[in-house]
Design brief:
With 851 residues, the chain is α+β, with helices and mostly antiparallel strands. The chain contains 22 helices and 36 strands. It has a 10-stranded mixed β-sheet with strand order 22-20-19-11-10-9-8-2-1-36. Strands 6, 7, 23, 30, 32, 33, 34 and 35 form an 8-stranded antiparallel β-sheet that branches. Strands 17-18-12-21 form a 4-stranded mixed β-sheet. Strand 24 (613-616) and strand 25 form a beta hairpin. Keywords: Hydrolase, Signal, Zymogen.
Length: 851
């Protein structure tokens, strides 16, 4: 990528012109504590009752936050011990200590590759200083947050103690008895929370932070902390591997629109009973630290919340509902960090200029313990470099834009670094009983990190807000981001915002104030499928916000267009959704691309007949069989959908820009671009897709369920090859209920099969669809899926956790919801009322502990 150096003077030159545009930062007064809700357990006695109903859902009741988190920590460890333990190891920079420097293949019993992923991760998190920040910030957390942290740690540790004593059996076999599964401290836990807050920002740059060094050689390489002859060979091998890894790194893509979520909040004008409804459909990894877990948490008189949360949340629900309201989240298009280009003082790579004054680039030596084999743990050290605002990053010469030389260096500042609000923010949302209280949580806190929020309530309100933490740039800087061709081109080139670091014009010290963030209140609907805030409701587009929140008037993804189309045509003749109609939205598996072009494509097929379509020199294909398969497609991507895999491969070769003739029009954003080109390009893509599918060993009329699958394990914790057919669409097809073979955001240690990918017949590159000779092994996509309707008798809800409640092969809930989803029978009722819980009761566990 050719990358012109940012003209550092732009900030200074424009400062006087825009001086009047600046605004003072808002002073936020923390809310008064609610003394009626007990934070800590009285007299240090933790008590919680856990009733599990069908599918292993725990209903956790306690009288205070610490005890609620205690019960949650205990049963989460029952269900997902290995995932939790690895999350703590990873955040605390201990993966190399326990697993060696490389990703480990637990199926083969050897490193998966000499990728140095663990040592880069460990040093990267050390460079972010999240452990140091946790130690410093823990005493400053609110009483409620400290109580929840304490309770979760007590519950997790109590489970480990009960396993050791033998009173708790059936521990997850993959990590049972392993040295890396250890009791944790409150600092360990807060370090883990801080590792989550940087996921959409600085954590994407760990390899560039690892590489950063002011020299031009290999000074970035770690070195044994003490001279030890016996590790010399290991150290040399490590150096060579790291040099290879650094040569192959690339700049990250922090926001993947194709790997996000769907969320709807329906208001009184869009529902049959005139009350609100919520549809939640987060797309997340099916394994690893970002796995969802369902629970129902109750503190009588204060909390009665049901939903799904990321594993590790201390008794809080991230996405769900209570008696009065519900909400869901999607990944925002907003940016949560700024990369700054620093202007170095002449001849000194360790000093930069800020408003004309020199400021230091500091260095610090950090140490990571590395398992070098044979039971030997050796400390390795390296230097990290940082400013007062964040770590220095650098790319190797092959990735020219972000070099550190005599004139420039680059630094990343993440607005979510040590964000202390997430637990308090979600707690306030869990406790809210009406729209005003819910909206106030976004005034009081800024803890949602990277989320859009779609909300509805029993009064029929539908509300949207993108309160993901976004750098609070001055008004002058926002104007420049919006109007400067240089800054816009630079942002487009890099994929994220790069600003001059030599002027306070572009500096920030906190998140964007509440009054400047996108939000919308409607009585019909709000929705998001990972396009920007602008398209929340095209009847009232949101405009004139900071470009750091995302694009305005931009072309929508086919998935968003599918969502808007279903919002119009799937609610029956009255145009208003019933509970059953909304429930069907999550598993109907429609896809926008074939609905848009299939009729025209089949007409072109008829005209082509049996005449082979030329794909490349010496490569052609008769499309008769492929076209017959497409004509038999049932309009859904279900297990029995003939031609479903062919549609998938065609979609990955489809180019909207060249294969649709009516261009995008912001005034018709929900329906443009459209109209299939008649130049033969679509038939060529279909022929190429056909050849790719046949190369993988599948017939063009193969039902999707014979190609797309998930895999389940045997009790030893290793993959068995047992496959379940898997209905569902892909983002590129314009699907709504989306799945993928990708492992975005998932670097789990959990064992799983991987299969060699099929290469394209033309480019010889691995297919973007992830197709293998076994088919599509699903790793990512719809996870915690639910709908809730508010009625005169309280909330009514359906849902499913597609990969089931637990990763523990020994628990009965290991694959029950997975099998249910595979069968295509839809969602299951969510048991919320006392009568429902009693009727579905499977077990009761009374937990107590004296601190």
């Amino acid at each position: 990528m050719e990358f012109n150096k940012l003209k550092l003077a732009i900030g200074v030159a424009m400062a006087s012109f825009l001086a009047g545009c600046g605004s003072d930062s808002e002073t936020v007064i923390p809310p008064e504590p609610d003394t009626s809700l007990k934070a800590f357990a009285p007299d240090g006695k933790l008590q919680a009752t856990v009733r599990r109903t069908t599918y292993g859902v725990p209903h956790i009741q306690a009288d205070n936050l610490e005890s609620l988190a205690f019960g949650s920590g205990y049963v989460q460890a029952q269900d997902n011990l290995c995932i939790l333990a690895d999350g703590f190891v990873k955040a605390n920079s201990q993966r190399s200590q326990f697993f060696g420097p490389h990703t480990f293949d637990f199926v083969a019993g050897v490193p998966a590759a000499e990728d140095n992923a663990n040592i880069i991760s460990d040093f990267g998190y050390k460079a972010l200083k999240i452990r140091e920040l946790a130690e410093a910030k823990l005493p400053e957390m609110t009483e409620n947050s400290r109580a929840m942290i304490s309770g979760f740690v007590q519950g997790y540790n109590q489970y480990l103690a009960d396993v050791e004593s033998g009173s708790e059996t059936g521990v997850e076999p993959f990590c049972a008895g392993q040295a890396w599964v250890q009791p944790i401290t409150e600092v360990d836990y807060l370090t883990y929370v801080f590792s989550i807050t940087v996921l959409p920002g600085a954590a994407n740059f760990l390899d560039l932070i690892f590489f950063a060094n002011p020299g031009d050689g290999d000074e970035y390489l770690p070195r044994p902390a003490q001279s030890q002859q016996q590790v010399a060979a290991f150290s040399n091998k490590l150096d060579k591997g790291l040099q290879t890894a650094m040569a192959n790194i690339s700049t990250p893509e922090p926001n993947h629109r194709d790997l996000g979520s769907n969320g709807w909040g329906l208001g009184s004008d869009k529902t049959e009973n005139g009350k609100g409804m919520v549809l939640g459909n987060p797309h997340f990894p099916h394994t690893g630290n970002l796995r969802f877990w369902q629970s129902h948490t109750t503190i009588p008189g204060h909390i009665n919340m049901m939903g799904g949360s990321l594993v590790g949340m201390p008794g809080l629900v991230n996405i769900g509902f209570n008696e009065n309201l519900g909400w869901t989240h999607t990944f925002s298009t907003a940016e949560h960090f700024v990369v700054y280009q620093l202007e170095l003082t002449s001849g000194d790579r360790m000093q930069y200029l800020f408003d004309g004054a020199p400021k230091p680039i500091k260095s610090e030596t950090v140490t990571v313990n590395v398992n070098v084999g044979g039971g030997q743990i050796v400390p390795f050290e390296k230097d990290i470099f940082f400013t007062d605002k964040g770590p220095i990053l650098e790319a190797p010469p092959a990735l020219a834009p972000f070099g550190w030389d005599d004139g420039q260096a680059f630094m990343i500042q993440d607005v979510n670094m040590a964000n202390m609000d997430p637990l308090d923010h979600w707690l306030a949302m869990n406790r809210a009983s009406n729209l005003e209280e819910f909206q106030q949580t976004f005034v009081d806190y800024d803890g949602l990190i990277f989320n859009n929020t779609m909300y509805a309530d029993k009064e029929g309100n539908a509300f949207y807000i993108d309160d993901s933490a976004v750098p609070g740039l001055s008004e002058a800087a926002v104007v420049l981001l919006r109007t400067s061709p240089e800054l816009r081109a630079l942002r487009e080139q890099a994929g994220f915002t790069v600003l001059a670091g030599n002027s306070s014009l572009f500096a920030f010290d906190g998140a964007t104030p509440h009054e400047l963030i996108p939000q919308l209140l409607r009585s019909d609907f709000v929705q998001n499928s990972n396009d920007s805030f602008w398209s929340t409701n095209l009847n009232e587009p949101l405009e004139y916000f900071s470009p750091m929140y995302g694009e305005e008037r931009g072309q929508l993804s086919m998935r968003t267009r599918m969502a808007l189309k279903m919002m119009d045509d799937a609610a029956g003749s009255d145009g208003k959704f019933s509970f059953d109609e909304l429930s069907a939205m999550l598993t109907n598996n429609r896809a926008y691309l074939p609905e848009l072009v299939l009729t025209d494509l089949l007409a072109q097929c008829d005209a082509q007949g049996s005449e082979p379509v030329v794909v490349a020199d010496g490569l052609s294909k008769d499309l008769s069989a492929a076209c017959a398969a497409l004509s038999s497609w049932n309009g859904k991507q279900n297990n029995d959908s003939v031609g479903g895999a062919l549609i998938r491969e065609f979609a990955h070769l489809f180019n909207e820009e060249t294969m649709l003739t009516v261009p995008f029009d912001p005034a018709q954003a929900a329906t443009t671009p459209n109209t299939l080109a008649t130049d033969g390009s679509a038939l060529k893509a279909l022929a190429q897709a056909t050849l790719n599918l046949e190369k993988a060993g599948f017939d063009v009329d193969a039902p999707l369920g014979t190609v797309q699958f998930v895999e389940r394990s045997l009790p030893n914790g290793l993959p068995s090859g047992q496959k379940l057919p898997w209905p569902g669409t892909h983002h590129v097809e314009g699907g709504f209920n989306v799945f993928s073979t990708r492992l975005s955001g998932d670097d789990t240690l959990m064992p799983q099969h991987t299969y060699p990918g099929i290469t394209d017949v033309v480019s010889d590159k691995e297919l973007a669809s992830g197709l293998t000779a076994e088919g599509y092994p699903i790793r990512y996509g719809s996870s915690w899926m639910f709908v809730v309707s508010f009625t005169d008798d309280g909330p009514k809800a359906n849902g499913i956790l597609t990969y089931s409640q637990t990763n523990n092969i020994l628990r009965p809930e290991f694959a029950d919801q997975t099998a249910l989803y595979s069968s295509g029978t839809g969602l299951r009722p969510l048991l919320y009322t006392e009568d429902e819980i009693t009727s579905g009761l499977v077990s009761t566990l009374e937990l107590s502990k004296q601190k």
